[in-house]
Design a protein that fits this description.
single chain; alpha/beta; Rossmann fold; six-stranded parallel beta sheet
């Protein structure tokens, strides 16, 4: 099956590393996958092996503009019909965002026809889904989307897209509930299928001699780093020896660095910058990390975590995880598979870290149960196979519909 897999920028740019395992598995299953980033960055940071399977085209390149103009001039009525849903939002900010991707949508339609694509699947329910929606209307190639979290909150024609798509995949039940609250009612096409991770052959079975608590998250308000730093101060006061590693980038980096200096804990806190995805996994494989902590907070209005792949990856290596009971995290970290604490609570964070590190038997139990949890419910092999089955079903249904239409016209 030839699948056009639409991303925001992956494999270019610094984000969306959580998509890599799924694409690799679809390719391993024998599908012909072409990755098309909506807005490709200048360089590939993660998943460089996927560049071979990627078609890079700028959002508003001269080629995109030329193809869009040619299609509009050749078939103006069809072009107008394809973009008609965009005017229904009634929100100028949404319409402007969508208009910016219309030329790329026409380019995508021509590319899909030229390569004989069977299906268009996109990640994010925002402008990437707008591209796929318009391209599908221009070509009659079935399309589908995976919705995450912030894109649901943005409500960029969610209901319209759900009615047009072969299916809408949510990565968490929490995200699905958010969409229902925003008025999405297309129950038959709406499904939940988590993101998945590749399962390493073996797990870490021995706790590192030097305690290392790692937080692999960009420095954004939703990630709650300040509470982890405050928890680390409490742990140092209690006599815990070790290091806190913060791996990421973002607008709060300098503020957090100043906080560390003001608390006089700079000797035990390391800012690692943004790690390449493979480098992060090597940390886990080498047994350098004792605990992974993600102190996420809920900012209201749906601004909270989905189900973080960062936690899944650590758990797959048998590394205990500590997180907050926000968003979709409780769908991953169930009882015995990690430790959940209330958000914005440094004392609870400190207690949980101390619990995980203070007893080697407890550490081993958390790691073992966490790994079993990911193997059972979040292994990418099973998840990609299920997704591929949905895509194949959508293709068969599209062929049947075309045949029925042809018979009626005859």
């Amino acid at each position: 099956m030839k699948i056009l897999y639409i991303t925001g920028s992956m494999p270019y740019g610094t984000g969306e590393a959580f998509l890599i395992a799924e694409v690799r598995e679809l390719i391993r299953l024998g599908h012909e996958v072409v990755i098309i980033p909506r807005s490709p960055g200048r360089r590939a940071v993660h998943g460089r092996d996927l560049l071979t399977f990627t078609r890079r085209e700028g959002l508003l390149s001269w080629r995109v503009i030329a193809i869009a103009l040619r299609q509009c001039l050749a078939a103006p009525a069809k072009a107008a019909a394809a973009v008609r849903p965009i005017w229904r939002s009634g929100r100028w900010n949404v319409m402007l965002k969508n208009l910016a991707v219309i030329p790329k949508a026409f380019w995508l339609a021509e590319f899909a026809r030229r390569v004989g694509a069977d299906h268009i699947h996109c990640h994010w329910a925002g402008t990437t889904a707008t591209m796929a929606l318009v391209a599908s209307r221009l070509t009659n190639i079935p399309w589908s989307l995976t919705a995450h979290r912030s894109d649901i909150v943005g409500n960029n024609l969610l209901e319209t897209k759900a009615r047009s798509a072969a299916f809408v995949r949510f990565i968490s039940e929490d995200g699905r509930a958010m969409a229902r609250a925003l008025g999405m009612t297309c129950g038959a096409t709406v499904r939940t299928l988590h993101m998945g991770v590749a399962i390493p052959v073996s797990a870490n079975s021995k706790r590192p001699g030097n305690h290392v608590v790692l937080c692999p998250a960009d420095f954004l308000p939703i990630k709650g780093h300040e509470y982890l730093i405050q928890a680390w101060v409490r742990l140092r006061t209690r006599g815990l020896r070790g290091e806190l590693w913060l791996a990421g980038e973002g607008p709060l980096a300098r503020r957090l660095q100043r906080l560390v200096r003001s608390l006089n804990i700079g000797d035990s806190v390391k800012f690692l910058g943004r790690l390449e995805h493979e480098a992060l996994l090597q940390f886990y494989a080498a047994g350098l990390v004792s605990v992974v902590a993600l102190p996420s907070v809920d900012l209201g209005d749906g601004s909270h975590e989905g189900i973080p792949v960062a936690l899944m990856e650590a758990m797959s290596f048998g590394i205990p995880v500590i997180a907050t009971n926000t968003g979709g995290i409780p769908e991953l970290v169930i009882e015995g598979t990690g430790l959940l604490v209330p958000p914005a609570d440094p004392n609870a964070l400190a207690d949980a870290i101390e619990t995980a590190l203070g007893d080697e038997t407890r550490w081993e139990q958390l790691g073992r149960c966490g790994r079993s949890r990911v193997i059972d419910a979040f292994g990418v092999a099973r998840i990609a196979a299920e997704l591929a089955g949905w895509l194949e079903t959508a293709g068969r249904e599209a062929i049947r519909s075309m045949c029925e239409a042809a018979i009626q016209d005859a």
